[in-house]
Amino acid sequence: MAHNNIKILPGATVCEDCTLEGDITIGGGTVIHPRVTIIAEGGPIIIAEYCIIEEYSTIIHKKSDKQENPPKPLFIGAHNVFEVGCRLEAPCGHIGESNVFECRSFVGVDIKIGSGCVIGAACHLTAPQTLIDNTVIWGSEHHIREALEKQPSQLLQLDFLSKVMPNYHRLRKPNVHKRQPSRQSQDSSPKP
Amino acid sequence: MAYLTQPDYVKYICSCGQLKPITSLYFCRHCLKIRCGFCICHEVDSHYCANCLENMPSSEARLKKNRCSSCFDCPSCFHTLSTRATLAQPRQAAQDAAAGGDTKVENKQPKKMYYLSCFNCRWTSRDVGIPDQPVASGGWPERTNPFTTRMNQLLDYYKAIAQQEKQEKLERERKKFAIRGKYITLTDKTGLTGAMARNIAGLPSSDGGSSSAIANFVASQASEDVDELPEDIYTKEVNLKQITSMAQRLASPEWQPATVSRLHPLAKLLSVKRSQRCRACDHNLTKPEYNPGSIKFKIELLAYYHVPEVKVISFETIKPGEKSALLIKLTNPTGHEMQVRLLQPEDLPQPEEREEPKSIEKSLEKSLNLEKEPLPETVPDKPSGVRVPASSRVCPPSMTLSLPQRDDAAEYDDDAHHDTDDVILWRKSNKIALRLEVVTESTVASGVPANALLALEYSYRNTVPPPPTAGGTLAGTTPAPRDHTLYTTVLLDLGVVSG
Ligand SMILES: [Zn+2]
Ligand SMILES: [Zn+2]
Ligand SMILES: [Zn+2]
Ligand SMILES: [Zn+2]
């Protein structure tokens, strides 16, 4: 296992009580609740700005057999919401922005997700597929519809969380002071 | 909870012969009989909206077509829609400001606008282009039914028919009961009603309004002329996300939208509060409180509160020709001590003659002539002469068990009193656990469901003062005793007969 290299940008709220393994970059304004698991075993994970990752969510960048060298990062766009207990397993690739992964949803490998998609509560996506923008999946029968517009952003909620979380949880301090992570900051990251 | 999530292992035989778990049975304290949803009258007490809890009399509900005027269901997934507020800078504001009008000051503030949104499938009223509304409730654009005139014609027609039938029935009744006068009229002789006679003679009928609606009514005609299918029906790629499902189309029968862009919020259907009435004695078995926000009952005669509850604790696998142990628990739910005796089903006394509903006409009216129809597949005989096919027989002990009354405080004592008895396993407050023996015939094939019948004789103290007049009809001329001996039969599910 590669040694941990966690980069937290200023403005991100990351609770100490969560499992972060591998090369992970967390964008400013993103809130990571306690008990979150993010494992970058197959390559780096980059989480953009203003995402909410709720309790017991798991994001894994899985190792794959046909691994490229250097491994491709998993890039998670801005304004994504990962609700309680959801699980995202992606070998590589790109998650768009303003998606909602509802409670206990599961997104397996080989699934490409555009922007503005909603994976409904307890929906399991396992077959290889591509979700075009604004796809909504809901219910035990996995009904699919296409929304007209992206899901509204959660800026108010983010604002509230970033104010409240420090009062109740130990937080990891931002360790990158530049806007973009660079070679230098990677060397100086002191996180365990 | 077990009754909600688990299969019904113990079923009681209702006085109508149906097999039901104790939680879906009622107990009429006036007839002292178990009743079920099948053999009682269901009456609508009030209409209300399950979302906003507004209640309304049935006439108003009928006028609103049994739909709430302020709540909506999602046309996509049928979940209730929620109203969401957004702050919108009105678009005209900018124009007004540019024009320098005096509306400038008012419109400066962002205005609160509302739209409907589904939390389940995230459908919003914006998806189909319904403009946001300035008020939180009401004001949503209503789509007009394209078949309004036809609908009204049909309604008028059926109203007229209903009225005519009512009239005819009244006339028939009058004829039946009228004391025959000296003069025999034409209609008396021929059996014609006045309306029919007038109709035959080609005269305008007396009640002009209703029959003109009937006379002018044109029945629907099936037509062979239908629109051609579009040219590209076989070649155009189908986008299932754009096409509505069958359920979505049928949810709004007036429009039957074929594409999702035509979906429109569905006015929420009203719910009803029901009260239930014993058909034999016309007493209420349940009566809910009128307030839709309350889930309490004014009258709640459930079997669960009056009939000893039987639960299966465990049992040995049922094998053909062998004896198996069966552990059951009996609970006395009443506030009085109860004497219980276990019997073989054939030991039950024969019931008194088949009970007839007291006011059969009235009951019939109320229950939509349910009584006339043959009963569905049930126990073919009356409960006491039961012929439920059971694979096994329970050997009941020949002792009378005494169950103390229910004591809610005793729930907190957890030291069960263990008996050394062969039969009684333990006692605890109003509960008793028994060890019984089940005998299975050697002829029973393996693999079939194993079950056994068990009859209970229990004492029941009726706390209802005997009604002053009903004594004569129900229990003979003597005033009904307050302590009764009642019987019930339960069918125990014992898994599958093993080989
Ligand atoms: Zn009754
Ligand atoms: Zn019944
Ligand atoms: Zn309502
Ligand atoms: Zn919906």
TrEMBL record, chain A:
Comp. bias intervals (Basic residues): 171-181
InterPro entries associated with the record: DCTN6, Trimer_LpxA-like_sf
Protein origin, superkingdom: Eukaryota
Disordered, as annotated region: 171-192
Keywords on record: Cytoplasm, Cytoskeleton
Biased composition (Low complexity): 182-192
Subcellular location as annotated: Cytoplasm, Cytoskeleton
Homology family: Belongs to the dynactin subunits 5/6 family. Dynactin subunit 6 subfamily.
Functional note: Part of the dynactin complex that activates the molecular motor dynein for ultra-processive transport along microtubules.
PANTHER family per record: DYNACTIN 6, DYNACTIN SUBUNIT 6
Protein name as annotated: Dynactin subunit 6
UniProtKB/TrEMBL annotation, chain B:
Gene Ontology cellular-component terms listed: cell cortex; centrosome; dynactin complex; myofibril; stress fiber
Compartment(s) where it occurs, according to its Swiss-Prot or TrEMBL record: Cytoplasm, Cell cortex; Cytoplasm, Cytoskeleton, Microtubule organizing center, Centrosome; Cytoplasm, Cytoskeleton, Stress fiber; Cytoplasm, Myofibril
Principal subcellular localisation of the protein: cytoplasm
The keyword Acetylation belongs to this UniProt entry's keyword annotation: yes
Pfam families in UniProt: Dynactin_p62
Biased composition (Basic and acidic residues): 351-375
Keyword annotations of the record: Acetylation, Coiled coil, Cytoplasm, Cytoskeleton, Isopeptide bond, Phosphoprotein, Ubl conjugation
InterPro entries: DCTN4
Positions of region (Disordered): 344-401
Similarity comment text for this entry: Belongs to the dynactin subunit 4 family.
PANTHER family, per the entry: DYNACTIN P62 SUBUNIT, DYNACTIN SUBUNIT 4
Quaternary organization: Subunit of dynactin, a multiprotein complex part of a tripartite complex with dynein and a adapter, such as BICDL1, BICD2 or HOOK3. The dynactin complex is built around ACTR1A/ACTB filament and consists of an actin-related filament composed of a shoulder domain, a pointed end and a barbed end. Its length is defined by its flexible shoulder domain. The soulder is composed of 2 DCTN1 subunits, 4 DCTN2 and 2 DCTN3. The 4 DCNT2 (via N-terminus) bind the ACTR1A filament and act as molecular rulers to determine the length. The pointed end is important for binding dynein-dynactin cargo adapters.
Name this polypeptide is given: Dynactin subunit 4
Organism: Galleria mellonella (Greater wax moth)
Underlying gene: LOC113522873
